[in-house]
Write a structure and sequence with these properties.
With 135 residues, the chain is mainly alpha-helical. It has a domain at 14-89. It has one helix and no strands. The longest helix is centred in the middle third of the chain and has 128 residues, at 2-129. The termini are far apart. InterPro entries: BLOC1_su2. One of its GO terms (cellular component) is gamma-tubulin complex. GO terms for molecular function: gamma-tubulin binding.
Length: 135
């Protein structure tokens, strides 16, 4: 009976070792697949980051180009606007001078009209008071 107990114990030890080996093998496989999954996730994340960086770099270049274009347009427009503003001021000054000249001409025209009316009155008065000579 000692032999059969010893052989039972040996079988149980062998069986326990097999179970332990199977457990370790399964655990090893599980951890390896877990590491592969994490590595795969990391590689995917790295690719996403690289793609995002490329996209943001492209957007940055486009925005810099747009910004430069806007600056150029701004500079050009401000120069044109300054030129237009200067021209408008010159036109305004010319209009003021023209208005002043028109007012002076109007006053002079009224003065002439008054003088002509006085002359006509004097002429009319002289005609009625002086004898008309018939030749």
């Amino acid at each position: 009976m000692a032999k059969s107990t010893s052989s039972n114990v040996q079988q149980q030890i062998d069986s326990s070792e097999k179970v332990a080996q199977q457990f370790l093998s399964n655990a090893d496989e599980y951890f390896r697949s877990d590491v592969k999954l994490v590595t795969s996730d990391y590689e995917c994340l790295n690719q996403m980051n690289t793609t995002a960086l490329d996209k943001y770099s492209q957007m940055n270049r486009k925005l810099q180009h747009v910004n430069n274009s806007i600056r150029t347009m701004n500079d050009t427009n401000s120069t044109k606007m300054l030129s237009t503003y200067t021209q408008l001021n010159e036109i305004e000054d010319a209009m003021s001078n023209l208005e002043s000249t028109i007012m002076k001409l109007d006053a002079y025209s009224r003065s002439l009209e008054t003088q002509v009316k006085k002359y006509e009155k004097t002429l009319a008065t002289n005609r009625t008071t002086s004898p008309i000579k018939d030749s």
